[in-house]
Amino acid sequence: MTSAPALLAPPKNNMGRGSRRKRARSAMPGLGLTLGMTLLWLGLLVLLPMAAVVIRSMSLGPSHFAEVAFSPRALAAYRLSFGAAFGAAAVNGVFGTLIAWVLVRYSFPGKRLVSALVDLPFALPTAVAGIALTAIYSNTGLVGAELAKAGIKIAYTPAGVVVAMIFIGLPFVVRTIEPVLADLGKDIEEAAATLGAGRITIFRRVLLPEIMPALLTGFALAFARGVGEYGSVIFIAGNMPFQSEIAPLLIVTQLEQFDYEGATAIAAVMLVVSFLMLAAINAIQARERKWRSTGQ
């Protein structure tokens, strides 16, 4: 006869320890595989080439590296490349926002053509852009001839470098701000207008805080493109050392002289400075998002 404790005992769990330890199914299946592939791809395409530049430049030794990377000619090229890229990105920040505003808020004949023209620098070969800009802004060009009468020279000067960088950087700002403006709609502007706000106040207090992260992103993209631009700049710059020579051209000059270590030294300096400036811009973006979300 079976005892009472045996009858009252709960049934044994037939599931093994492995089943009890089975992890819950991930909400994102394949995360480990896709993350690994992402890191591998970025490592091969981004980190490995940058590491190769830094390692190759270190073979010069500290003294020789400083002599090549911080020579007066190299410093002049750095100032022109980074300064012109920053100025061009700032100009594109203003006029790119205006163009994005017009394309989003207004309907007019030829709007699709204007929108296509904004994307033209993306598809146009940089050499073609450089030749076209030189033909227009030279002293005998359509625009350059009129400016020359006023004593203003664009081609073969640092101003020509800025013009070329503005041309190739404009689409980055326009296409970054455009979807943000499209998502905002007109209702918030109309609401602000009904409360008595003027156009400048509406832009400064309503629109600008909303588009600021996108504007900073477009600025960073235009700046990065301008720093590394080569093809469209060399035709209009004149390429005079200490005057209109950009850093990418100086790297190519070093390579033509078979000075590979010197070229990598200059490239390493540009890499570090570009990374620091982009990191600063990203930090400003993060601070802007935090301020918008917390209000402090």
TrEMBL record:
Subcellular localization(s) per the UniProt record: Cell membrane
Source domain of life: Bacteria
Protein name per its UniProtKB record: Sulfate transport system permease protein CysT
Name of the encoding gene: cysT
Purpose of the protein: Part of the ABC transporter complex CysAWTP (TC 3.A.1.6.1) involved in sulfate/thiosulfate import. Probably responsible for the translocation of the substrate across the membrane.
Annotated GO CC locations: plasma membrane
Bilayer-crossing regions: 82-104, 116-138, 150-174, 214-242, 262-284
Stated family: Belongs to the binding-protein-dependent transport system permease family. CysTW subfamily.
Oligomeric and partner information: The complex is composed of two ATP-binding proteins (CysA), two transmembrane proteins (CysT and CysW) and a solute-binding protein (CysP).
Membrane topology: Multi-pass membrane protein
GO terms of molecular function: ABC-type sulfate transporter activity
Keywords: Membrane, Sulfate transport, Transmembrane, Transmembrane helix, Transport
A Pfam family recorded for this sequence: BPD_transp_1
InterPro entries, A to Z: CysT_permease, MetI-like, MetI-like_sf, Sulph_transpt2
PANTHER family in alphabetical order: SULFATE TRANSPORT SYSTEM PERMEASE PROTEIN, SULFATE TRANSPORT SYSTEM PERMEASE PROTEIN CYST
NCBIfam families: 3a0106s02 (TIGR00969), permease_CysT (TIGR02139)
PROSITE patterns: ABC_TM1 (PS50928)
Domain ABC transmembrane type-1: from-to ranges: 78-282
